[in-house]
Amino acid sequence: MTPLLQLNLADLVFRPPGTGDIRFLTLFLDGEKYPQDGTHGTTWELRTYSSLAKLVPLHSPAIKFELKPMQLGPPALVEDFPCFEDLEKEVGDDLWDGFREQHRTYEGIKLGGWPSLVQSEISWAPFGRHPAQPEYVLQVDSPEVGWQWGPGGCAYIGRGTSKGHRKEWFLEWQCL
User: Fold this and answer.
1) Alpha-carbon separation of residue 70 from 129, 144, 174 (angstroms)
2) What three-state secondary structure class fits 57?
3) How far is 46 from 60, CA to CA, in rounded Å?
4) What is the pLDDT along the chain (176 residues), one digit of tens a residue?
């Protein structure tokens, strides 16, 4: 597995839902295959840590492609708005065009906020009936680090919210 993303959440002023018990997280991918949607498996893994006390730096593994380091800026609270697919009511194209111009959904790597959807709303399972009831936590739109989720793609990571599933993570990715 290749490490794609590490986030230190220890000093965040604002904690998005689903991250209150996390101080550090790392996303790993199989560098040769696109990740399979769903829970952890052989193509992706998200590791979370509740404390930084026992973490030590590791050397980068030998990989067949180049990952570029990137530094996220200081944490900031920004106004983030839903995409068309996440609106609760049907709106016409004219109203949507005006809304989208004034109310941006942020792209890129982000924790919390609204997902910047590529094709449709996130579907953790058919008809939204997933036993873990995952809720969106993290978006990884990462061509700037040298990884693409297909053409114009983006990944969404959610955390289970139902009893017995709160430590489970789920991934869905979309592309054009």
Assistant:
1) 36, 8, 22
2) coil
3) 17
4) 888 888 889 888 888 889 999 999 999 888 777 787 666 677 899 999 999 999 998 777 777 766 666 666 555 656 788 887 777 667 777 776 777 777 778 888 888 989 999 988 898 988 878 999 999 999 998 776 677 888 888 999 999 999 999 999 999 999 98
- The residues with which 27 forms a beta bridge, in sequence order, are 5, 46
Q: From CA 10, how far away is CA 8, in angstroms rounded?
A: 6
Nearest CA-CA partner of 138 in 160, 116, 156 = 156
The strand order across the sheet containing 169-174 reads 38-39, 169-174, 154-159, 135-140, 110-111
Amino acid at 40: H
- The sign of the dihedral angle between the CA atoms of 18, 173, 35, 26 is negative
Pair 168, 140: CB distance under 8 Å: no
Q: What pTM was estimated for this model as a whole?
A: 0.86
Of 126, 127, 142, 137, give the one whose Cα is nearest residue 160: 137
